[in-house]
């Protein structure tokens, strides 16, 4: 804080006493973040690229441990010691910071026009009247597959559900590979890699998600129950003991070459690239029938905002406008394959698997996970309950209809539009 105060005083002095001269003191911006894994990327790639074009502004990336970030950040904000730039988690945590006056409204920031309403939705007010963080990246759901396994067994990449299950049947009959690597022990895996992966094709992405928020659709409607019926069929293809299989177990089964298909989030790409010794491909969630519009979960994951109390707001806005630029999008997305730019401007991806995932944006409609905005603010928490029900359905301990009825009952107990 002392260095920033001194900087502000020096800048003020230079403006008052040396107007028109070239004298200036560097302004230093500090970024708060939970992404300590990204420290080298910021120090070696992102910050040098910005500083080269913006002499006089220095940037320091200062991350906390991921599990400690929310508490540490809130303490710093309350004490007035937080950095100028705040890395934003999606939806309610950041909305609360904005409502408390900790994050500035960035709706008019130069560069915000590069993002769609869907891209901004995780960092906007419920009515869309204000956006308080610049979207940085999303993660996309789909399926990663072992190209060698597909070639050996003689299956084609599926585009429809019938083709998908025919491929699973053929892989299972061959017996060399577990058809699909996914467990239900950790619960969230069943919902995130299962229900939220294939579901958007049933409820038509944003159309269904927004209708659920408005109360125009219910979780007991056919388009919300049907994905569970499909998930129930996965049980036969997950291999022996999948009920006790953890998320790391699933990753290992696939990267060791024992499973042919992995229901995935794109964040797996970097890890899988480093561990798998076979060529991988990816395909989007299969549609019900050929010619149907496809929908993908292109889920907002990370953004960055302005500390409303920053003493360096103008310099920070210069940085944030750069974060909103195609240059930043290209550097960031290629440094972290599987974390995709939310910019409307296409980004040239270098990683072939990342290229495949992001190409679906051109042919499919994008949406976000159905439970993340508004619908998980109460108790029972719809997101967490969806984990349990997805696992139960796959395990065969609960029917799709019963699971949906319980979820609807829980949501209606606290969410007025669903009562």
UniProtKB/TrEMBL annotation:
Keywords: Periplasm, Signal, Sugar transport, Transport. Transmembrane segments: none annotated. Residues 1-24 form the signal peptide. Coiled coil: none annotated. One of its GO terms (biological process) is transmembrane transport. The keyword Transport applies. InterPro entries: Bact_solute-bd_prot1 (IPR050490), SBP (IPR006059), SBP_1_CS (IPR006061). The keyword Transport applies. It is found in: Periplasm. GO terms for cellular component: periplasmic space. It holds the Pfam family SBP_bac_1. SUPFAM superfamilies: Periplasmic binding protein-like II. Its main location: periplasm. Part of a binding-protein-dependent transport system for a sugar. Belongs to the bacterial solute-binding protein 1 family. This is Probable sugar-binding periplasmic protein. It comes from Nitratireductor mangrovi.
């Amino acid at each position: 804080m002392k260095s920033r105060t001194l900087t502000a005083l020096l800048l003020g002095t230079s403006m008052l006493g040396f107007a028109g001269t070239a004298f200036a003191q560097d302004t230093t911006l500090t970024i708060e973040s939970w992404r300590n894994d990204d420290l080298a990327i910021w120090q070696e790639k992102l910050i040098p690229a910005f500083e080269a074009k913006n002499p006089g502004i220095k940037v320091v990336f200062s991350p906390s441990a991921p599990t400690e970030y929310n508490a540490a950040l809130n303490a710093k904000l309350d004490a007035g010691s937080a950095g100028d730039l705040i890395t934003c988690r999606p939806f309610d945590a950041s909305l609360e910071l904005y409502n408390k006056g900790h994050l500035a409204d960035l709706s008019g920031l130069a560069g915000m026009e590069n993002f769609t309403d869907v891209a901004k939705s995780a960092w906007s007010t419920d009515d869309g009247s204000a956006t308080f963080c610049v979207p940085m990246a999303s993660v996309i759901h789909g399926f990663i597959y072992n190209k060698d396994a597909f070639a050996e067994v003689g299956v084609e990449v599926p585009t429809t559900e019938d083709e998908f299950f025919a491929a699973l049947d053929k892989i299972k009959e061959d017996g060399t590979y577990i058809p699909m690597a996914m467990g239900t022990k950790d619960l969230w895996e069943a919902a995130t890699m299962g229900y939220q992966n294939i579901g958007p094709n049933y409820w038509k992405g944003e159309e269904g998600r927004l209708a659920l928020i408005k109360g125009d659709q219910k979780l007991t409607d056919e388009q919300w129950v049907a994905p569970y019926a499909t998930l129930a069929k996965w049980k036969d293809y997950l291999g022996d003991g999948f009920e006790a299989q953890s998320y790391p177990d699933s990753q290992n089964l696939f990267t060791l070459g024992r499973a042919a298909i992995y229901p995935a989030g794109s964040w797996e790409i970097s890890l899988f690239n480093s561990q798998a010794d076979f060529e991988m491909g990816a395909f989007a969630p299969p549609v019900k029938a050929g010619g149907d519009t496809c929908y993908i979960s292109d889920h907002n994951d990370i953004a960055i905002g302005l500390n409303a109390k920053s003493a360096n707001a103008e310099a920070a806005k210069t940085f944030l406008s750069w974060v909103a630029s195609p240059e930043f999008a290209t550097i960031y997305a290629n440094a972290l394959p599987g974390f995709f730019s939310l910019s409307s401007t296409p980004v040239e991806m270098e990683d072939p698997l990342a290229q495949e995932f992001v190409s679906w944006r051109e042919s499919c409609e994008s949406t976000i996970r159905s439970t993340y905005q508004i619908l998980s603010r109460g108790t029972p928490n719809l997101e967490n309950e969806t984990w349990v029900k997805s696992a139960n359905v796959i395990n065969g301990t609960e029917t799709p209809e019963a699971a949906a009825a319980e979820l609807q009952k829980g949501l209606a107990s606290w969410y007025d539009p669903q009562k």
